[in-house]
Amino acid sequence: xxxxxxxxxxxxxxxxxxxxxxxxxxxxxxxxxxxxxxxxxxxxxxxxxxxxxxxxxxxxxxxxxxxxxxxxxxxxxxxxxxxx
Length: 84
Known about the structure:
The chain is mainly alpha-helical and 84 residues long. Helices cover 67% and strands 0% of the residues.
């Protein structure tokens, strides 16, 4: 649950920074989103058929989706085997 909260906060902060600040100072903000969603973001960046995550809203949604899938997989991995 902690990882998904971190991903949500970082992506929300990046969206706010990009919406509020139109100067070149905001250009580093998407790097934080890519860093927080590693290693899923590397798969998106390295697959040539997928759009680059910094090329717009639809491409950023791919990165958000990958981060959420990664959070779900981590949750499945760390919750352990449940017995009935």
